[in-house]
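Final report, closing paragraph on structural work. Over the funding period we assembled a curated collection of sequence-structure pairs, and we close with a single example.
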Amino acid sequence: MTGTTSRAPEHARRLQNVDALRGFALLGILAVNVWAFADPYYASTETNPGFDSGLDHAVRFVVSLLFETKFYLLFSFLFGYSFTLQMAAAERAGRGFVPRMLRRQTGLLVIGLLHGAFLYYGEILSTYAVLGLVLLACRNISPSTALRLGAALIVGSSAVWMLLGLAQLAAGEITGSAAGDAAGKLAAFQGDAAATLGFHSGHLTDTLGALAVLQAPSAMAMFFFGFAAGRVRMFASPERYRSAADRVLRFGLPFGLIGAGAYALAAAYAPGGGLETVAFGFGQLTAPALTAAYVVAAILLFRTSFGGRVETALAPMGRMALTNYLLQSLTLGVLFTGYGFGLVDRLPPAAVIAVVPIVFAAQMIVSRLWLRAHPYGPAEWALRAATLAAVPPWRSPRTTPSPNDRR
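Its predicted structure, as stored:
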């Protein structure tokens, strides 16, 4: 090639490492959400009596240790970071940021509610849509203020959960007893599509309320942390923060694993009572440290030769994060519920977790192929249309090389 190619300004280029982190977050979310489809006892006060072997407990322990309450925090952090990118895009386009974001959050709310009513009653998109309005109202705060607000939310919500757990223990509620709605969920998911739809839509309101209590404070905290990171453009120049990254790995990783271990032990072996509530609160306190360690480890990996290939492979997943999140629910619904094969409660935990890399690998392939011809995933296209109040291009423009570029 004889011509020269100018690079776009740093602030105008899409950050591949951010997209790759989103792809990584989707892997962790899939590893957690698969249990809500495959195991009717998941998130209940009793472990599944049909799969009660040492291996079964070990698998559930590992999932609780490394994945639960970690990856929705990573997604929340990236939401806050991307919020600053949206701010920059609105400034470059000369469009009003507030109307743009109000339309975006409204579109996200609609998508989330439809997702919850039809595909997965435990969806979190609608929570993000509402919390995004809080971040919009706080858009002019400094990074240091955002960090303080996030820390206050983490410490405050963790303290409340631990105090609640201590109260349960004082009342003799060491572990839970009944399995709650496990039988109803099993019957619905083993039934036909109408039964599955009825379960999702019938439980959506209650689940949204539970998520507001269980996840909203920590998600909002991570919004603030991501906002602070975006304001200093941390992922645009990660080498500037190498010393801080080293400290996160040195201190945050063991601190996060201690809390994660306490929560995993309680969730696997003493679910539903005061022990799990105390451990959940402690885990909420330490989970952001473990999530930060995941982020740092991934960014450091991406800067190696092998990690660069991993980053390139994950980035298409992250560019289509919303579409892939919805597709995960659809795929799991077809596998485990009345929408398809109805495999709920039929696979042991080791087989359930084996589904995760298979589904994820298929999504990686589909994402890469789709983005060869389209600038956005289907859900991203719809959300962008709502954000801009305009119709964005559906297919990528075909580029014809100039004579000088042809060999």
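The chain has a mean pLDDT of 90. The radius of gyration is 22 Å. We thank the funder for supporting this effort.
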